[in-house]
Amino acid sequence: MTAVETPSPTETRTRAAPLPFGRGFLKDTWYFVETAAALKPGRQARYMLQDEPVLLGRTRSGQVYALRDICPHRAAPLSAGRQVEHAGEGETIECPYHGWRFRLNGQCAAIPSLTDDAEFEVDRIRVRAYPVAESQGMVFVWIASDPRRPAEPDHPPPTFPGADGPAPRLVEAMVFDSHIDHAVVGLMDPAHGPYVHQQWWWRSRHSMHDKQKTFEPREQGFAMVRHRPSSNSRAYKLLGGTPETEITFRLPGYRWEHIQVGDKQVLGLTCLTPETADRTRITQLFWSDHWIFALARPILRQGVRAFLKQDGGMVNLQNMGLAFDPAMLWIDDADRQAKWYQQLKREWASSRAEGRAFVNPVKPETLRWKS
Fold first, then answer.
1. Residues sharing a CB contact under 8 Å with residue 123, sequence separation 6 or more, in sequence order
2. Alpha carbon distance 122, 116 (integer Å)
3. pTM across the whole model
4. What is the CA angle 198-200-204, rounded to 5?
5. Which CATH number is 29-143's, of 1.20.120.1200, 3.30.9.100, 2.60.40.1120, 2.102.10.10?
6. What region holds the Rieske domain (predicted)?
7. Which strands sit side by side in the sheet containing 210-218, from one edge to the other?
8. Along the 371 residues of the chain, how does pLDDT read in single tens digits?
């Protein structure tokens, strides 16, 4: 009988097919899930992340944790339970159905229905635990490529310039009925503004003109390098002075604009969280030491909501066409950022599968379009 060689995990990974646009999710990376301020001590909540239910919580002592939100006994959501402490167990999560208790690392600590003389190895039962990190007032969860053999994250969550202070000054969120890929390219698209966002204080299709911007590679992404905002972007005039802005994108779904006005700054960060294959949560967060955020926050909030609703409405219209699975047509230069995103995704997936360093495929380039 001829022996059959079993491929090593590395060999198996190198044969993985690249992710097609609009399907699948990037792994081995950090996803934004919630603001730190929203996770109160002693509380937990259920979130969806990549088609999986995730319990995210904070203990009374302040530690943040993340577990798969399914009890392995009868599938009840652990997030509906409570945090309890018993001698020798430390802080645990108690299932609301039968009281099974799980430590923050996912290991089962106790099964109350067992008798004292029962021969049952409770600690062999586990719930999947996700690496979690709290940074700059945000909570990130690491999604591993192989949940059966989870490894510690090999890089920290992203950090953002200007995300200073304990919490953002403004937070707005909305769920788009789309895959994260469509949400990403929709938000980075430079040509849709005059047609989708036609507020008097922003711009109109009548103010369209040629634009030329310089781009360069950045860590796991790219940036439109610092520049003076376009003359038809009226909202920038509210900041006064001579603002300069830099817009950056980073995998798996972070886009931020860092505006400098003299010694003041504004950071607008958009985090895209893939809840399911066709639902993406868009969270917009703003930090600033500029006086306008103290004076005009209600007006700014209305503007952010208006932008999100308009983009969400366009996603719903786009879904009418995507239901027929059409081929997507990408043009230069207005769609170059969308092309870069797809190249970045392919390279990230390939580098992780092959066990090698990520090589940014984006090269410095000047793009031109009209908007």
1. 107, 108, 109
2. 12
3. 0.90
4. 45
5. 2.102.10.10
6. 31-141
7. 170-176, 279-288, 264-276, 254-261, 244-250, 221-227, 210-218, 365-370
8. 333 333 344 434 444 456 789 999 999 999 999 999 999 999 999 999 999 999 999 999 999 999 999 999 999 999 999 999 999 899 999 999 999 999 999 999 999 999 988 989 999 999 999 999 999 999 999 999 987 776 789 999 999 999 987 689 899 999 999 999 999 999 888 888 888 887 654 555 556 888 899 999 999 999 999 887 765 455 555 666 678 899 999 999 999 999 888 888 889 999 999 999 999 999 999 998 877 777 777 778 888 888 888 888 898 999 999 999 888 899 989 999 999 999 999 999 999 999 999 999 999 999 998 88
Structural tokens at position 41: 């001590």
